[in-house]
TrEMBL record:
Binding site for substrate: 7-12, 69, 154-157, 177, 182-183
Transmembrane portions of the chain: none
Family: Belongs to the HAM1 NTPase family.
Protein name from the UniProt record: dITP/XTP pyrophosphatase
Organism: Variovorax ureilyticus
């Protein structure tokens, strides 16, 4: 089955392609099909993921899957949440992973509560007007490290410290990360839903 991925993020594509391999699903980034980014005006992951999936499916005629993910920091009342990708721009930096990490560490300087969670919400649709979207959520709690450690992954992986491993996500191998990450959890739940509902 071919699914259009409502994202142009190469890191997400690589992770999700590996996670969906058991279903013999081929993910194609929407940009490869000439589809631009969808508006994401909502304040929850599920609403934004649904909007992105409907946009991608409407423009391609294909079933679509979208991931809306972000970092929820306890000391910030759950923010940046849905604004994670643009976090750095709120502090005068250009958009980008390294600047997001830099801004986060600056904002947490002197903060004793470093608890945070990475959240991934996946939404899959058979078509743009599918009245019964499949929704799967994954969440991993950890602590924000004082400085980036590790070279694997993307986003906040270098500062998301997982006490159960004694490492950041960026220090884990791709296999271990996918087995334990928020996106890995969501993808496994989505695979089960697809097998149950779409097979």
């Amino acid at each position: 089955m071919k699914l259009v991925l409502a994202s142009n993020n190469a890191g997400k594509l690589a992770e999700l392609q590996a996670l969906f391999a058991p279903l013999d699903v081929t993910l194609v980034r929407q940009s490869e099909l000439g589809v631009g980014e969808a508006e994401e005006p909502f304040r929850t992951f599920v609403e934004n993921a649904l909007a992105k999936a409907r946009h991608a499916s409407a423009h391609t005629g294909l079933p679509a899957i979208a991931d809306d993910a972000g970092l929820c920091v306890e000391a910030f009342g759950g923010l940046p949440g849905v604004d994670t990708a643009f976090y750095a721009t709120k502090f005068g930096y250009e958009k980008g992973d390294a600047n997001n990490v830099r801004a986060l560490l600056e904002q947490l300087a002197g903060q004793s509560d470093r608890r945070a969670a990475l959240v991934s919400t996946l939404v899959a649709l058979r078509g743009a007007d599918d009245p019964e979207p499949l929704i799967a959520v994954g969440r991993v709690a950890g602590l924000i490290a004082k400085e980036p450690v590790g070279d694997n992954g993307f986003g906040f992986d270098p500062v998301m410290f997982l006490p159960q491993f004694g490492k950041t996500f960026a220090q884990l191998s791709a296999d271990v990360k996918n087995a334990n990450s928020h996106r890995g959890q969501a993808a496994r739940a989505m695979l089960a839903l697809m097998r149950e509902r779409w097979s």
